[in-house]
Specification:
2 copies of one chain form a homodimer.
Chain A (H helix, E strand, L loop, with lengths): L4 E7 L3 H11 L3 E2 L3 E3 L4 E7 L4 E7 L7 H6 L4 E9 L2 H10 L11 E2 L5 E5 L9 E5 L1
Parallel strand pairs in A: 1-5, 6-9
Antiparallel strand pairs in A: 1-6, 2-4, 3-4, 4-5, 7-8, 8-9
Chain lengths: 134, 134
């Protein structure tokens, strides 16, 4: 069912400082910051040869990464995103296996314009998993 | 400097249960468990289309993931591994930029038989970063 690793998302308190770490210290290719007000984050894409890392800074009130940064003020890996061919089929399989899908279980349009779902960390080895339709 | 994302490592308290999550619930391809006594872990490789996830269970006394699992008993993402062409050149660049390399700063032979280094999470957005020579 799982296809590519779409991205690893790292929540950071200061996007400029995070860009300096990846661009200057680690010598990676980074994008310009992109505000995603519908998702409560500003994102910078780090392009690796086979996948990407997304650096996420909270944007606006009630950002979905605000609580995580309160617990992890220096930042940390927030979630991991895997691609699936058919997100509704994936959801139905996961629910049949007893796994919990966050929210109302209906796919939403993610930051890349594709349908996404988030899965409960307690059912996935303590990791927040995003599924994105490829 | 950064090339491919080599792997994302997830520390887990129970490797059989973790394999069931990735193989049965998520429908991924998983390897047989492989004991790595020199590295204090037993590992299962999850093969994705573009990279891999490594599920790590502590092995023996003083496993390097034991303390992490005490803090995160359900498991969690332990580190992220990026490939570099030349690990000594990478280390020298990082040190010149003021970043801390863990241990004595000399590359060790990692679980894939290649030279590796670990970088200090406090200098890398709260994430433990492994560099592996490609």
């Amino acid at each position: 069912m799982l296809g590519r690793l779409n991205h690893v998302a790292i929540a950071v308190p200061d996007l400029d400082a995070a860009v300096a770490v990846y661009r200057d210290t680690l010598g990676a290719r980074v994008s310009q910051p992109q505000a995603e007000p519908d998702h409560g984050v500003t994102v910078v894409f780090v392009t690796l040869d086979n996948t990407k890392v997304e650096l996420l800074e909270p944007l606006g009130e009630g950002s979905p990464i605000a609580a995580f940064l309160e617990r992890n003020p220096a930042g940390g890996i927030h979630h991991i995103c895997y691609e699936v061919d058919d997100i509704v089929a994936a959801r139905d399989r996961l629910k049949a296996e007893g796994a919990r899908v966050l929210g109302d279980g209906e796919p939403k349009t993610g930051a890349h314009g594709k349908p996404v779902l988030f899965l409960h960390p307690k059912d996935f080895l303590g990791t927040l998993v995003e599924l994105e339709e490829a």
